[in-house]
# Entry
Amino acid sequence: MKRYALKLAYDGSSYAGWQVQPHTPTVAGMLEGQLARLIGEPVRVVGAGRTDAGVHAWGQIVHWDTAKPLPTPFLSRLNALLPGDIRALALYEAAPDFHARHSALRRTYRYWLRTYPNPFLRAYSMEVPTPLDLSCLEQAAALLVGEHDFAAFGKEVSRYSHTRCQVVHASWAYSDGLYEFRIEANRFLRAMVRALVGAQVRLAQGRLSWERFRAALLQQDRRWGLYLAPPQGLFLWEVTYPPNSLYLLERYEFLSTAFSTGAASTAAPKLAPDSTGAPPRSAQ
Amino acid sequence: MKRYALKLAYDGSSYAGWQVQPHTPTVAGMLEGQLARLIGEPVRVVGAGRTDAGVHAWGQIVHWDTAKPLPTPFLSRLNALLPGDIRALALYEAAPDFHARHSALRRTYRYWLRTYPNPFLRAYSMEVPTPLDLSCLEQAAALLVGEHDFAAFGKEVSRYSHTRCQVVHASWAYSDGLYEFRIEANRFLRAMVRALVGAQVRLAQGRLSWERFRAALLQQDRRWGLYLAPPQGLFLWEVTYPPNSLYLLERYEFLSTAFSTGAASTAAPKLAPDSTGAPPRSAQ
# Structure
């Protein structure tokens, strides 16, 4: 029996989230069905993050076990079976004790907001009616960094043994009407990123006071009301694991960052992709 | 009677192209229906470019005539009526003799190719199985610049009085697995950009000889076979008109370039958009 891992990108628009559910299209359900066809036996996958309905991923990591040898080339054969909104980007052999969810040291999410109509980003960003004060957003993000109890920023928080999370990075960036929130932490509560974006947008719009935001963060005061930003702006971006837990078997050499501005360079591509390499430090 | 013009962006995935057809969803048909609802009378629009089924636009320009005053704010009210895959970005008052198609001095198209699977760009780019030789693509594009008879690179070319086009710019750029072809010309034959991309990709793949490509361009030799790259990689990007032909009435201040890499800057937004301005030199 060997444990394998995949790096996945998916457009969550057409799925009721990651987690397998009966009679409902989910990303994990679709993946399990096509992995089973390809490998020739039933497959159960475990994902690093259980993304909700409409949420996307650029670097979701999943693992599964099999005693069968994998067909090669694996990625192109799997992608030929999967629908176009789910793509396998890399295949790894995992250490026997690797677990896509429990072994993750950190996860990074990104969330996009925009102030203008755009038919190409409508499924990948939240539209806000007027520009937001970036310095206000930046001050709010700075408060998030560190270890806090995020109980006021999650759904179904009672199911967790504790609600403390270590945020190692939280920041906003802005370019031409597009705002990007980036947050990296050891763990995230259910709907936590959407709740944090919702709170910060309300702060910047003057609809939530700093006092209430600080009380939610520092005293778990839930009176601010948990406004969830819509799912379509959210991406599970990257998952980081301990060194030597994943050994790269196959990957695509060239990967732009989800979208492109079309501001392409003219650097020539390397024409000979190498598809294997040394054990990576993280799944990226 | 006044003549107005709109700048439109649309995702062509769900439409049978630009041009109105009975019992078929088209971009112009959808726009005419919602303009009529908003203005309160039947509307016929003329577009700068008749994009084919599945082709997108970032800067399509349309004009129409009406004696009625336009409701304000016009753009947000029109966008509230239009489906999310068609967005009006700017409104202009046009000179009485302005014509979205006939007055255009130049049109710019962009086409994206990628060498890797990407669920977010699947509707906006063509996937090629292996990296392409960029210098080959660049040499081919350089040959296109200037005035040529493009009869070997178009569909239904017999319906044109002549098939000569002046290409003022043609280039390729590359970044992280994403190739971008950009071409600007005074006019384009039907399916011409897709035929040019198809020929250049075949050249770079060694499936079309330089002799045959040159013969197609210089002697209208059609023996190379007219391989059309798929529509979803193509964008009508920008249309340029004579100075003072369009007077800006309303627009969105912040407009990212169709997609974004998420490589956002931290430059602060201006918080007070000005929605009118001096007569623009072009529709951009």
